[in-house]
Amino acid sequence: MFCPKCAAQNVEDAKFCRGCGSDISLVPQALTGHLRDEVPSRHRHRREKTRPTIENAVQSIFMGLAFIFVAFAAKSWAPAGHIWWFWMFLPAFSMLGRGVALYMRMKEDQRRLAPPAFAPAQQAVPPPAYAAGLPARDTGEIIPPPSVTEGTTRHLGVPVERGQKNP
Questions:
Q1: What is the largest CA-CA distance in the chain?
Q2: Burial 135-150 (b: 16+ CB within 10 A, else e)
Q3: Which of 33, 79, 109, 135 is deepest in the core (most CB within 10 A)?
Q4: Using CB atoms within 10 A of its CB, is residue 108 exposed (0-12), middle (13-18) or buried (19+)?
């Protein structure tokens, strides 16, 4: 089996190329046509698994607001809250931003997946132009087309013998 990246020859059951180190574990499957539809990814983000919903967006926004409230409550009533209260803004703004992003992604998905607005069906053939809109014809100079036989017999290269009649 050859590496598709560097063309180095490898053993048939190799997972990585010995020349460049590329992952070649799927090459035999691709050559036989038995490649799986979806290749599992190790680094898939958590938010790609779920679709954005209004419930997730509202929950994240309210959790961010709750963290802001807790930050101010810790500053006012916690024994050492005046030292660390502002650190509560990090998760607060993170959750607020995530909520707004989920809401915007949800609206974008709705806009993208919505059926298109009504548009009248277009005709396959455009309507004909009106005769009044056409320019007047100039029929004063009508030139007859050249003879078809004149153009073809000239190129035969056979000398034309005139004056002889075939009996």
A1: 134
A2: eeeeeeeeeeeeeeee
A3: 109
A4: exposed
b/e per residue, 82-95, with b = 16+ CB within 10 A? eeebeebeebbeeb
Cα 18 from Cα 129, distance rounded (Å): 70
The Cα 165–Cα 103 span in angstroms is 97
Cα–Cα–Cα angle for 74, 78, 80, rounded to 5 degrees: 105
Ramachandran class of 157: left when φ > 0, alpha when ψ lies in -120 to 50, beta otherwise: left
pTM of the model: 0.42
Spacing of C-alpha 17 from chain mean position: 31
Rg for the chain, CA atoms, rounded: 40
The predicted-structure confidence for 8-67, as pLDDT tens digits, reads as follows 888 888 888 888 888 888 777 777 766 665 555 555 555 455 678 889 999 999 999 999
